[in-house]
Design a protein that fits this description.
Blueprint (H helix, E strand, L loop, with lengths): L11 H11 L2 H5 L8 H5 L3 E3 L5 H4 L6 H7 L19 E11 L3 H7 L13 E3 L6 E5 L13 H9 L6 E8 L6 H8 L11 E3 L2 E4 L9 H11 L5 E5 L12 E6 L4 E6 L2 E6 L10 H8 L7 E4 L8 H6 L3 E5 L3 H13 L6 E4 L3 H16 L10 E5 L5 H4 L19 E8 L4 H13 L7 E10 L2 E9 L2 H4 L32
Parallel strand pairs: 7-8, 12-13, 12-15, 13-14, 15-16
Antiparallel strand pairs: 1-5, 2-4, 2-5, 3-4, 6-7, 8-9, 10-11, 16-18, 17-18
The structure holds S-adenosylmethionine.
S-adenosylmethionine binds next to loops.
């Protein structure tokens, strides 16, 4: 007979406490006189343990590390670079409780805490020796014997007339029963980070592997596909997104080569070739934060529109949208997605450099929209999501418009994105935006922290109303212009309030 507890590693501290508890005859008393059912003792894969032996044979030092080793794949898989799923077979001894099949459902609700949870492992199995019974698989890290049950659990067992008699069952684990992190921890060199997170873009898992993971890249890709339903392709980023169109250079690690992705974001559908355009699922909250600011009838200029995640929700809100992207592939998919989401009649699409877009179509539209004589109630927003460079493009607003300035509340609101590595990122972004505009933004701007991109690198969005002094050409001194509101020009290097917080 195998000694049941020896197989399940528990910490010395816990064992001491349990030992002390069970030296009293009252603790053992309720098991006195019970005998192991013969048919269970003889069932294949099952070894009964003798509760009376447990505490005298248990070694004092068992570590929690061993607890996690229990469900680790076999050590032989260490260093594997070509995935051999058959090498992950392993047998572990788990405690089981034999119960009548009629009470299984009621019992399982009460035993949630201690029931075994493994991917692809049934927690209740047929009893090979008795068609009327079932075996409930328990977590060996939580159940040492009958005394491991909590009061409430014991009470349900009693109500259902189940004797908390634990047997040992040899459970065969295969590749399917391990989690991706357990697999990678077992395969990659010991002590190295195995983080297996990825961005999901439709059927594509987009990984960003570290150098030490590269020798295992194909295996990692395949594990991601195997363990994540719906993922059929795994790619690794092979450059730092510094090319003009912000798309990633990527290598297919495993699975299909097809990079045509279909994604849902905030209830809209987007289709695109992920190898040729920019898409980041981590921006969905930011896309809705901005589009939530818009009201029906507002005008949105999206200078770096990508495949449409600001433009399409805005058009769906009945805004008039002007969307632009320099990448011909983004432009193509932007057109496609506007049709797909049935907003093509509300979005005017351009394939221009951002500066040309601002100085061409945006200028022409603003000249009309901001004409002081027209009665206009709706707002104008300009979104500029090219965080590596958008601030440079702010200079295109300088003296963009001629004529009499519109009233302050009708001036366009700019949402301009930027990265910052500075200790005070909000101040850094405010300072650089002001320098590009040639005007202080003072308190008239708010800076929103979008996300932490890398250690010490933040992505931020500065929002501000374009000052009339920036946007409008000063009008020549002319007695006819004397009714115009004065356009006060400010110095570029004006000081900013200290400690401006992210808002
Ligand atoms: C960071 S992506 C943002 C795309 C989209 N707005 C989003 O939130 O997913 C920046 C986009 O700007 C485009 N782009 C890069 N340089 C540009 C330029 N000079 N003029 C216009 N678009 C540009 C890229 O092709 C890319 O689609």
């Amino acid at each position: 007979m195998r000694v049941f507890l020896r197989r399940f590693g528990f910490s010395g501290r816990l064992l001491k406490a349990e030992s002390r508890k069970l030296t009293g005859s009252e603790s053992l008393g309720w098991l006195a006189g019970t005998s192991w059912p013969q048919q269970l003792r003889e069932a294949p894969g099952i070894v009964l343990s003798d509760p009376r032996q447990r505490f005298c044979t248990m070694p004092e030092m068992e570590t929690t590390e061993k607890d996690s080793e229990l469900f680790a794949p076999p050590p032989e898989v260490r260093g594997m670079t070509n995935l051999d799923r058959s090498a992950f077979k392993k047998t572990v001894a788990v405690p089981v409780l034999k119960v009548k099949k009629e009470i299984v459902n009621r019992l399982m609700r009460a035993l949630k805490r201690v029931a075994l949870q493994r991917p692809g492992v049934k927690r209740v199995i047929e009893d090979p020796a008795d068609g009327e019974s079932r075996l409930v698989l328990l977590d060996p890290r939580k159940v040492l014997g009958h005394d491991s049950f909590e009061k409430a659990e014991l009470s349900v067992l009693k109500q259902l007339n189940v004797h908390p008699q634990i047997a040992e069952y040899n459970l065969e684990l295969t590749y399917e029963n391990f989690k991706s992190e357990e697999i990678l921890r077992a395969v990659l060199p010991e002590g190295q980070d195995v983080t297996s997170s990825f961005s999901r873009v439709g059927h594509i898992a987009h990984l960003n592997l570290r150098d030490h993971q590269l020798p295992f890249k194909h295996l990692i890709g395949q594990v991601m596909i195997d363990k994540n339903p719906g993922i059929t392709s795994a790619v690794n980023k092979i450059n730092n997104i510094d090319n003009t169109y912000r798309n990633f250079q990527m290598e297919v690690l495993s699975g299909e080569e097809n990079m045509m992705a279909k994604v849902r974001e905030n209830n809209y559908t987007y289709e695109f070739d992920f190898s040729k355009v920019y898409w980041n699922p981590r921006l969905s909250t930011e896309h809705s934060r901005i589009t939530d600011l818009l009201h029906p009838g507002d005008v949105l200029f999206d200078v770096f529109a990508g495949v449409g995640p600001f433009a399409i929700p805005a058009a769906k809100k009945n805004c008039t949208v002007f969307a632009n992207d320099l990448n011909p592939e983004s432009h193509k998919w932007l057109l496609h997605n506007c049709k797909l989401n049935k907003v093509d009649h509300k979005v005017k699409i351009f394939n221009l450099d951002g500066k040309d877009f601002l100085q061409g179509p945006v200028r022409a539209e603003l000249m009309q929209q901001l004409e002081p004589a027209t009665e206009r109630k709706h707002a104008v927003h300009i979104v500029m999501n090219l965080p590596a460079r958008a601030i440079e493009f702010l200079s295109a607003f300088r003296l963009l418009l001629d004529g009499r300035p519109c009233s302050r509340e009708l001036l366009p609101v700019v949402h301009c994105y930027s990265f910052s590595r500075e200790a005070r990122p909000a101040e850094d972004v405010r300072r650089r935006a002001a320098a590009a505009l040639g005007s202080s933004l003072e308190a008239a701007s708010s800076v929103h922290l979008v996300r932490n991109v890398a250690p010490n690198k933040e992505m931020l969005c500065i929002s501000f109303r374009l000052p009339a002094a920036v946007l409008y050409r000063p009008r020549a001194a002319n007695p006819e212009n004397q009714d115009d509101p004065p356009v006060k020009r400010r110095r570029t290097d004006e000081a900013f309030p200290e400690g401006a917080a992210l808002s």
